[in-house]
Design goal:
alpha+beta; 623 residues; 7-stranded antiparallel β-sheet; single chain; 3 domains; Jelly Rolls
Length: 623
């Protein structure tokens, strides 16, 4: 039985964490501060009784303001900003005033906010680009940020307005919930919709939730709560109501964004034609594509016979019903209790640790059920204070298992400079001693035991890893070998796996390198090897790219396994696949050249079959 050693995470990260690297006018490099618990600008404690307030003609009760303050405290109890700086505040919606610097169109659209429900809530702004002030504290370098919101009666930022028919009396919109749409997301948004298991996460499965691709707004992850999971208090409008409201708005829009008299006449004629065209569908639900909500007079000018109008292509395009808020719900939003709750956070840099930490903290720490019960089943949490599901300061222990017998035997050989079979890492975990960068899917390479293969392997599917505990520099003369497996039915044309040996001037900055990219063939056909070298100084050494056949490397077997061997002896470079030499350079690398970095990368792959496994990485010293 393997021995298991537990080491506190902090003890490991203190020895391997990179020092913060600052770039003028940009801030600290994100990867250089990724593991630092930077925290909050201020921990908000609301110790005095809340007071009601008025913004324009909107009146917010003391209870509503108090709820906003509680939202702030709940967020701060659930999330500890890591690799970024957090600032939590509460707010309410207000009616924008006329601005002389705004356009007529901008001012007109702003007035539609009069028709929105009363909204109040809290936001956390995540500052990712940071510097240090005179006291050595992290402060924002720029105004950029990601956001997390908790709001009562939010509508504006989870919808796309249909401004042409909206007014101060009625706000028309679509709610682009692709999850409940039969045609669904496009491929990119489909992947984003399940970042870190969002789509089926156990903590939000009881509530309406979806990824909201932005059109005129930022993309968001959205969770919506209503009492007893009732439908949101919105009404679908008919095609007839759309054209009736559009006709009312024609003179309004002619003042705001005018067209010529001739075009205005054409627009009115085309409106009459459309009313006639849809008279038999007058009571059908009006639906629009997400990219067709920004209607103006020119849409009617161009709606001539033979051209598509706003309601064409319903059967082949992804469309959503035009909605409006029920009048009773708008009135009830003025009372103390929310009519619905929205928890949303912006889609950010999904391959950056700071953002993924925010995303997973909300999903795993935030107590969604408590918030629901607090408002909609208060008797179930009476007298109970909010507690996150998991402490945001929780540090997962690093589990180091006993090295395999093979590992012990090989590393006992004094000619072996480096060996890695990942036997000291528990399956399902990131490889110990390696930096594992996040892919766009929000995942990293992890150690696994593939069926049909002995021992531990790292699975790479769009991932990057580099050896952080590699002794530096490598010997002047050496042999590097590693075993590589491509999954069965690996997609022809998917990304290859690149092994890079380099001499870095600083982490990630290679002044010279050797890259070997391998990609399997298909149906038993040989694969492809691409060898790229960059050794510019002194002149006369290898620089450029050459392609070779990767003998026996295909995708038809359960495990398509090969062994790669790279030998450097003085200036000579040799490359082997299994026992077949595929490349030899007599004058490839300066004899005294010393490498100091090793990495593997297959960024861009995401399909289930497009994965590689690597293990048994060995570097031996040569005389």
């Amino acid at each position: 039985m393997k021995k298991i050693i537990l080491i506190a995470l902090a003890a490991v990260t203190l020895t391997s964490q990179a020092q913060p690297i600052y770039v003028d006018r940009i801030g600290f490099k994100l990867e250089s501060i990724a593991d630092i618990d930077i925290g909050w600008m201020e921990i908000r404690k609301h110790t005095t009784a809340p007071k009601g307030k008025q913004l324009g003609d909107r009146i917010y009760s003391a209870k509503q303001i108090g709820y906003s303050q509680q939202f702030v405290e709940w967020m701060q109890q659930s999330y500890l900003p890591k690799g970024c700086l957090g600032n939590a505040t509460c707010y309410q919606n207000y009616i924008p005033k006329f601005s002389p610097t705004n356009s007529l169109l901008g001012n007109a659209i702003n007035t539609h906010a009069h028709a929105l429900p009363l909204m109040y809530g809290a936001q956390t702004k995540i500052h990712m680009f940071l510097k240090k002030d005179a006291k050595g504290k992290f402060v924002p370098q720029t105004g950029h940020g990601d956001f997390w919101h908790l709001e009562a009666n939010q509508l504006e930022y989870i919808s796309e307005p249909v401004s042409f028919i909206s007014s101060t009396e009625e706000y028309y919109f679509i709610l682009p919930d692709y999850k409940d749409n039969s045609k669904g997301y496009n491929a990119e948004d489909k992947a984003r919709s399940n970042l870190l298991g969002f789509d089926n996460h156990k903590n939000i499965k009881a509530y309406k939730h979806f990824f909201l691709p932005g059109q005129s707004r930022i993309s968001h992850y959205v969770v919506i709560m209503t009492k007893d999971n009732e439908e949101l208090p919105f009404e679908k409008i008919t095609i007839g109501e759309f054209f009736t409201e559009a006709e009312k708005q024609f003179p309004v829009w002619q003042k705001i964004v005018p067209v010529s008299a001739e075009k205005f006449s054409t627009a009115k004629n085309n409106l009459a034609r459309l009313k006639e065209k849809y008279k038999n569908k007058w009571n059908d639900i009006a639906e629009l594509r997400l990219d067709k909500t920004q209607i103006d007079l020119n849409d009617f000018v161009n709606a001539t016979e033979g051209y598509n109008d706003m309601f064409d292509n319903k059967d082949i395009q992804t469309t959503f019903p035009i909605l409006k808020v029920k009048k009773t719900a708008r009135e009830l939003s003025k009372t103390d209790l929310p009519q619905w709750l929205v928890i949303r956070w912006s889609w950010g840099m999904e391959n950056q640790p700071y953002y993924l930490h925010l995303h997973e903290s909300i999903l795993n720490n935030f107590n969604f059920d408590y918030v629901y019960k607090f408002f909609f089943e208060p008797e179930k949490v009476k007298g109970q204070a909010y507690k996150p599901l998991r402490s945001p300061s929780l540090k997962e222990a690093v589990v180091i298992t006993e090295a395999s017998e093979t590992n012990k035997k090989i590393t006992a050989d004094k000619t072996v400079f480096f060996f890695e079979d990942f036997s000291t890492t528990a399956p399902g975990k990131k490889p110990i001693g390696w930096q594992a960068k996040f892919a766009n899917s929000g995942t990293t390479g992890v150690v696994t035991n593939p069926d049909g293969l002995d021992g531990n392997w790292v699975e790479l599917r769009g991932h990057y890893i580099n050896a952080t505990l590699l002794k530096k520099p490598l010997p002047q003369n050496f042999t590097l070998s590693y075993e590589l497996v491509a999954a069965q039915n690996f997609t022809w044309g998917a990304k290859g796996l690149t092994m890079q040996l380099s001499k870095e001037t600083s982490p990630g900055n290679a002044e010279s390198f050797l890259k070997l990219k391998l990609r399997p063939g298909f149906d038993g056909r040989d694969g492809e090897a691409e060898l790229e070298t960059k050794f510019p100084a002194p002149p006369g050494y290898s620089n450029g790219t050459k392609w070779y056949v990767a003998n026996g490397f295909s995708n038809n077997k359960k495990n398509n396994r090969i062994t790669i061997t790279i030998k450097k002896m003085d200036e000579k470079l040799q490359v082997f696949i299994d026992k077949t030499k595929i490349a030899e350079y007599e004058k490839a690398i300066p004899a005294a050249h010393l490498f100091n970095a090793l990495s593997f990368d297959c960024a861009g792959n995401s399909a289930e079959n497009d994965k590689y496994f690597i293990s048994n990485i060995k570097i031996t010293k040569e005389q």
